Amino acid sequence: MGVDNAPRIEATNDASESRQQSLIRLDAAANGVWLTRNNVGALLDERGVPIRFGLANESKAQNLAVKSADLIGIRPVLIGPHHVGQTIGQFASVECKKASWHYTGDKHEKAQVAWCEFVLSKGGFACFATGPGIFNQQR
Q1: Distance between CA 79 and CA 3 in Å, rounded?
Q2: Which of 18, 70, 86, 131 could make an S-S bridge to 96, C-beta 3.0–4.6 Å?
């Protein structure tokens, strides 16, 4: 589905994080970006041993310091002269928030910022998003 015929769904200020995430995924697909859910957590197996899952969640301490984003994927990027005409896949990370969200600087958000800074430091794309439009602004 191309950008011109993508579904147009307006965001509202009371829109939940779940709704905004769906809108962001639709918008990403319309802009050629592949995103998938990054479920992060821990469960006990049948022996009572914790099994951790999701990116950057190898230990409780790591998860407290760095919280990987809700959506992880690949964004196509046409790059410069030494690779003329080639498209690379850039790691993409999007932390979804409800439409009315504003940064407060609590421990959870600071750990999410730490993840964004890590991804950006490695040449990836990372952001917080409260709705669609982030990928067509990056072209």
Answers
A1: 21
A2: 70
pLDDT band at 66 (very low <50, low <70, confident <90, very high): very high
Cβ proximity of 27 and 133 under 8 Å: yes
Would you say 119 and 125 are in contact if contact means Cβ atoms under 8 Å apart? yes
The alpha-helical segments, DSSP class H, found in the chain are 17-30, 60-65, 107-121
Which residues contact residue 70 at a Cβ distance below 8 angstroms, ignoring those fewer than 6 apart? Answer: 17, 21, 37, 38, 94, 95, 96
Count CB atoms within 10 A of the CB of residue 80: 7
To the nearest whole percent, how much of the chain has pLDDT over 70? 88
- pTM exceeding 0.85: no
SS3 content of the chain, % helix, strand, coil (to 5): 25, 25, 45
CA atoms within 13 A on the CB side of 125: 23
The Cα 103–Cα 96 span in angstroms is 12
